[in-house]
Write a structure and sequence with these properties.
Shape: globular
Protein name: Hydroxymethylglutaryl-CoA synthase
Keywords: Acyltransferase, Transferase
InterPro entries: ChsH2_C, ChsH2_Znr, NA-bd_OB-fold, Thiolase-like
Enzyme class: transferase
Structural class: alpha+beta
Number of strands: 21
EC number: 2.3.3.10
Strand order of the largest sheet: 5-4-6-7-1-8-13-12-11
Number of domains: 2
């Protein structure tokens, strides 16, 4: 039996209240909030966070044979973004890492490709949705990521959801588009594509049900995703699925994540589903696609480390609208009157890739001292080249001391810097993110998160920051990579 063996989701901490947008622009107030990636996040960093959740199962990382990153907002063009995710996860160098980028439909393409592949595959869907101020794309959009590992028993991992069938229908529809270099999309009048999408969804769903030998009443969780809100609502209403099987779309709480949206909705269903239930995932966009899954008994012991609902509940107080515009580059504010930040340099970044991307420390084999950054010479017993690599990404720590720097070059002043004492030994100084000054206190518990520290001279610098451990977070212990 082949199918889904692991999953994870990432919802950014920050929120934007739709009423704040309306108050500033004088438009009609919408309800709820949307998830907002922080100033130090992009689709690559969010992909890493989602993938870490999917690969939290001990020993799963070495089994992955290929990695696909799907996004409509890649951090780089020409350069592969999936390789940074690959490096941060510490996957084997022979694992294929490739992007599926440029369109929202790439998320469906990545899922179907992974589901069909005989090679254990990790697929990550990540997106950062931006629209013109006051537009529906801005207020209804959302940021986030989700990751899924497909494989089977022959790969040594239990299947949590068996793949029953899948089908796709493609159609050239000029419904939504964005020219290269443009920060926002253009959309045709909604009524044009609504009936087209409803018809295509019916074809794909009917074909998938026929392949699986099921009727529409067998569906226990009906998930519909797409950026065309009217079409999605019509499919939910007219597909013939039992009303109680139709799942919420989460847009009121976190917005529509575009490429990531089908992954976030599927992860939310898997957080709640019981064994033996059938899930239908319908994705609309330049056609339609359907995946039919049936959950297994293994799901109860292999759920995502951080449920989507818990991440939604843990969101911050809404960020000011002006702050959001500044983070998205839609409000050009005067930068700090400091020298421009220096970009990272390729040779040292490549030489220290294990530390820079994977946050891998070293531990002395003689006396057990942990070193961050890794070193060849032990600071305690002076042993030379007697070190063992030790991944630190899941190791939590305690703030030993901190500083609030109001002069540092940062898009979101002030910069919070903490010195962290890690469980099991080791001390390191780093930035504190997803936090306010009130969170920077001695004794506070923190965990590590992969972020974009700066972009300078057109180069993104990725590294690790600390973030507060908040109530409800799963207390995960240190793991090895297999």
């Amino acid at each position: 039996m082949a199918g889904l063996i692991a999953y994870g989701a990432y919802v950014p901490y920050h929120r934007l209240a739709r009423t704040d947008v309306a108050a500033v622009l004088g438009t009609k107030a919408g309800k709820g909030t949307r998830a907002v990636a922080g100033y130090d996040e992009d689709t690559t960093s969010m992909a890493v966070e989602a993938a870490r959740g999917a690969l939290a199962l001990d020993g799963l990382r070495p089994r992955i044979g290929q990695l696909f990153l799907a996004t409509a907002a890649p951090a780089y063009l020409d350069k592969t973004n999936a390789t940074a995710v690959h490096a941060a996860l510490g996957l084997d160098e022979h694992v294929l890492a490739a992007d599926m980028a440029g369109s929202v439909r790439s998320g469906l393409g990545a899922l179907v490709t992974a589901a069909r592949s005989p090679v254990p595959t990790l697929v990550v869907l990540s997106d950062l949705r931006t629209g013109l101020p006051g537009s529906a794309d801005e207020t209804a959009g959302g940021d986030g990521a989700a990751a899924f590992a497909f494989g089977g028993h022959r790969n040594g991992a239990p299947v949590i959801a068996e793949l029953l069938a899948h089908d796709t229908v493609s159609d050239e529809i000029l419904e939504r588009w964005r020219l290269p270099g443009s920060p926002t999309s253009r959309v045709w009048e909604e009524r044009f594509a609504e009936e087209i999408y409803v018809t295509l969804a019916g074809k794909a769903l009917g074909a998938a049900l026929d392949q699986a030998g099921l009727d529409i009443g067998a569906i226990d969780h009906f998930v519909v995703s797409g950026l065309h809100a009217r079409a999605c609502a019509t499919v939910r209403r007219t597909a013939g699925v039992r009303p109680e099987a139709v799942t919420p779309d989460l847009t009121g709480a976190i917005g529509n994540g575009g490429t990531a949206q089908p992954g976030l909705l599927l992860a939310d269903v898997l957080d709640r589903a019981r064994p033996g239930e059938t899930i239908a995932l319908v994705v609309l966009g330049d056609g339609a696609g359907v995946l039919l899954l049936r959950t297994t008994e293994a799901l109860t012991t292999h759920r995502g480390a951080r449920p989507v609902a818990a991440q939604i509940a843990a969101g911050s107080a809404p960020v000011p609208y002006a702050t959001y515009l500044s983070w998205r580059g839609l409000l050009d504010r005067e930068p700090p009157r400091r020298p421009d930040p220096e970009p990272p340099y390729a040779p040292p970044a490549h030489r220290r890739g294990g530390w820079k991307y994977g946050f891998v420390a070293s531990r002395c084999e003689k006396c057990g001292t942990r070193h961050l950054p890794p070193d060849r010479v032990c600071v305690s017993c002076r042993s030379v080249d007697a070190m063992t690599d030790e991944p630190m990404e899941h190791v939590r720590g305690t703030v030993a001391t901190f500083t609030v720097d109001r002069l540092a070059h940062t898009p979101s002043p002030p910069m919070l810097v903490v010195v962290v004492d890690y469980d099991g030994g080791g001390r390191f100084r780093c930035q504190l993110t997803d936090a306010t000054e009130a969170d920077a206190v001695i004794g506070a518990r923190v965990e590590m998160t992969f972020r974009r520290t700066v972009t300078a001279s057109g180069v993104h610098n990725y590294f690790w920051k600390a973030r507060p451990v908040r109530t409800g977070d799963t207390d995960r212990t240190e793991e090895t990579h297999g």
